[in-house]
Amino acid sequence: MTVGTATLEDLAARLGEELLLRGWKLATAESCTGGWIAETVTAIAGSSDWFDRGYVTYSNAAKHDLLGVAAMTLERYGAVSAEAVTEMAAGALARSGADCALAVTGIAGPGGATPGKPVGLVWFGWATRAGGVTSGSQVFAGDRRAVRAQAVCYALTGLLDLLS
């Protein structure tokens, strides 16, 4: 899957339109994407009307301190897990003025794989104040940049799907 800048900006613009229709704001919680989602949405003129804040929580300590991910969750399941991403999304929502949040954590590579968690594995969480948290994972192919770009695209698409 090739993801271009225009594609990401198109997705972000569509997401902004959806959020504006609802009068909602977005918060992001990012690990492996390192703020790329927040950068993509803030590249859209007028995004201050629908983007509240972004958390870049690359370390486990940051996930715990900034988002409230339980130390036990990180110890038992690891940072790249359904449990961690669910707590990341819920934490971003709870600690912001946003109405919805998305969270991403994964293994972009080239190293970092463990048994059962290959390079390219990314977990996603999408949360709304009314609907709770939905999570899912994908395994993306390619180098580090390709995995991260695909994760940004998938995260934005997933939130658009949730809002539709």
Can you put this structure into words, describing what you see?
This protein is of the alpha/beta class and 164 residues long. The protein is 45% helix and 21% strand. It has one domain: CinA-like (Maf protein, Alpha-Beta Complex), CATH 3.90.950. The chain has a five-stranded mixed β-sheet with strand order 2-1-3-4-5, sandwiched between helices. A hairpin with a 3-residue loop joins strand 4 and strand 5. Helix 1 runs parallel beside helix 6. The two termini are 24 Å apart.
Relevant terms:
164 residues; alpha/beta; Maf protein; five-stranded mixed sheet; globular
* Main sheet strand line-up: 2-1-3-4-5
Alpha-carbon distance between the two ends: 24 Å
Q: Which word captures the global form?
A: globular
Q: Spell out the helices and strands N to C.
A: HEHEHHHEEEH
Quaternary structure: single chain
**CATH architecture grouping:** Alpha-Beta Complex
Mean pLDDT across every amino acid position: 96
CATH class: Alpha Beta
Describe the largest sheet: 5 strands, mixed
Roughly what fraction of the amino acids lie in strands? Answer: 15-25%
Overall helicity:
40-55%
What's the structural domain tally? Answer: 1
At CATH level 3, the topology is Maf protein
Q: Can you count the beta strands? A: 5
Computed over alpha carbons, the radius of gyration is: 15 Å
Low-confidence stretches: none
Structural class: alpha/beta
**Count of DSSP helices?**
6
Task: Give the structure's gist in a few sentences.
Helices cover 45% and strands 21% of the residues.
